[in-house]
Design a protein that fits this description.
The complex is a heterodimer of chains A (280) and B (237). Chain A is of the alpha/beta class and 280 residues long. Chain A has a single domain, classed as Rossmann fold, CATH 3.40.50. Helices cover 35% and strands 24% of the residues of chain A. Chain A is built from 7 helices and 10 strands. In chain A, strand 1 and strand 2 form a beta hairpin. With 237 residues, chain B is an all-alpha fold. Chain B contains 11 helices and no strands. Classes of the chains: A alpha/beta (280), B mainly alpha (237). At the A-B interface, strand 6 and helix 2 of A face helix 7 and helix 8 of B.
Chain lengths: 280, 237
């Protein structure tokens, strides 16, 4: 196995309860070049899992290893794309993208050349000298993806990267991400709470249970996808995952809204054909 | 100015107590030409610059330590908040005893006046650096001094500038008070000699100079600095 996660446990301090366990004995294997998604309700520890792999946080127990080498601290072989672009506002787009390259002791000229190439790949070649505040949300997120990809990481860790974007931008970026993934063959670990997004993009989908975070189920989908259009297979998978998640969603809602709350997927008005008008 | 001129001419007070506008202007201009005022400005500004620079560096370093180490925050951090509320001129008697009535004593209170504010602002500037930026930088492989130089410092620039601005105002006030009481050349000392000689035209001239320098520094230098950062960051269009 390429990325191996064994017996990870993690708790956070809590005001009343002392500590709260967010991750409980997580085991997960990811192959090289695989596109894996983690879905789960909010607060289930999926982002924490990602930060552990990135080395931004430390686990209390368990081991994460890549190619047999244990992860200790952050490193540019695993780059994170966050929900918000997090571009440095004091640097131009180009300087933002070369930031990590220059840290690798690359010459400025070479770094800029690579950065411009990567920015062209995400269709932002005309914006290299702009400052982040001059870009739209989708453009910023594309810069942050370019900033991560230009590092040529072994693993790309994405923490709900498209959650803050509008539907149209998201569709475009889905397609671009899949194109890039096919081109670069990078291993992707993609966190999302959007089941459809997970199904449309990934080869393997891991469903997280909540409080404490545990792996509830794993699904495989080896279809070729374009990242935009759902088909029968993905819709079927979506339904299965939703059924799996229903219990978890109920748990979260009960905790937040009181015990008498009940959530049933069947009672929620939902477009049963599932295409949400995209075939028009 | 016209009102000033008229009231001064009509008032019962003698000229030396309430000089007219024209009289003040002529003193101001002759003072500038003779070099008396220019020398005083030079002396004052050089003191200020030295004190302010020391204060800024000290503020950044101590601010960093408070931000970085919990134990420093619990000890020094609390002390700074307490000390900040003491106007720096209050230290002057101590400074005279320690250093004598000289430039050094004045420099001491000028530095002191700016240091506390600078520490407080630097600390809160560093503390308010978004976690997101820190995570991004770490994820891209930044650490140690590089992390401090490329993320923490630039990210807190807006707050540091406003800290510098306040620190400047504090040290400017401390400087005037110190010079008024202290020794050597300087604008404060010129005020004091104007009072001793009963030359209110000189006193008012110096007041005008002080006002002009203060305005230039605040509105031209700091405001421009602030604006340019805001424009670059897109905080204000």
């Amino acid at each position: 196995m390429y990325l191996k996660i064994e017996g990870i446990e993690k708790s956070f301090p809590h005001k009343e309860k002392g500590t709260v366990k967010v991750l409980d004995h997580i085991n997960l294997d990811i192959e090289k070049g695989q596109f894996v998604s983690i879905v789960g309700p909010s607060g289930c520890g999926k982002s924490t899992m990602l930060y552990l792999i990135a080395g931004l946080e430390k686990a209390e127990q368990g081991k994460i290893s890549i190619n047999g080498k244990e992860v200790k601290g952050s490193g540019s072989d695993r780059v994170v794309v966050f929900q918000e672009a997090g571009l440095f506002p004091w640097l131009t787009v180009l300087d933002n993208v070369t930031y990590g390259l220059l840290l690798k002791k690359m010459s400025k000229k070479e770094a800029e050349q690579k950065a411009i190439e990567m920015l062209k790949m995400v269709h932002l070649g005309n914006y290299i000298d702009s400052y982040p505040h001059e870009l739209s949300g989708g453009m910023k997120q594309r810069v942050s993806i370019a900033r991560a990809l230009v590092m040529e990481p072994d693993i790309l860790l994405m923490d709900e990267p498209f959650a803050a974007l509008d539907e149209q931008t998201r569709m475009v970026l889905h397609k671009e991400l899949l194109d890039i993934w096919r081109k670069t063959k990078v291993t992707v670990l993609f966190i999302t709470h959007n089941i459809r997004e997970a199904v449309l993009l990934s080869q393997k989908i891991v469903v997280f249970a909540t409080r404490p975070g545990k792996i509830k189920a794993t699904f495989k989908s080896n279809d070729t996808k374009d990242g935009v259009m759902p088909n029968d297979v993905t819709l079927q998978l979506e339904k299965q995952i939703l059924a799996e998640l229903q219990e978890e969603i109920e748990k979260v809602l009960k905790e937040e809204m009181g015990d008498d709350y009940s959530f049933k997927t069947n009672s929620v008005s939902r477009d049963t054909s599932g295409d949400m008008g995209s075939h028009i | 100015m016209a009102i000033w001129e008229v009231t001064s001419r009509l008032s019962d007070l003698p000229d030396f107590m309430f000089p007219s506008f024209t009289q003040v202007m002529s003193t101001l201009i002759s003072g500038l030409i003779s070099g008396q005022i220019l020398i005083a400005i030079g002396a004052s500004l050089s003191r200020l610059l030295i004190g302010f620079t020391i204060a800024s560096v000290l503020g950044l370093v101590l601010g960093y330590l408070i931000w970085r180490y919990k134990i420093v925050e619990d000890t020094l951090g609390f002390l700074v908040t307490a000390l900040q509320s003491i106007p720096s001129i209050v230290w002057f008697p101590l400074a005279i005893i320690w250093f004598g009535l000289n430039d050094f004593a004045i420099l001491f209170i000028v530095t002191l006046g700016a240091t506390w504010t600078m520490i407080v602002n630097a600390t809160s500037g560093f503390k308010n650096v978004p976690v997101l930026y820190q995570r991004v930088a770490k994820s891209l492989g930044s650490s140690g001094f590089h992390f401090l130089r490329t993320v923490i410092l630039p990210a807190s620039v807006p707050q540091l500038i406003s800290g510098l601005r306040i620190a400047w105002a504090f040290s400017w006030r401390a400087l005037m008070a110190g010079e008024l009481l202290g020794a050597g050349v300087g604008l404060g000392q010129l005020l004091e000699s104007g009072r001793a000689l009963g030359q209110m035209d000189l006193v008012i001239s110096v007041m005008i100079i002080i006002g002009v320098i203060g305005t230039i520094m605040d509105n031209v230098l700091f405001l421009r600095l602030e604006r340019s950062v805001e424009r670059k960051w897109g905080i204000r269009a």
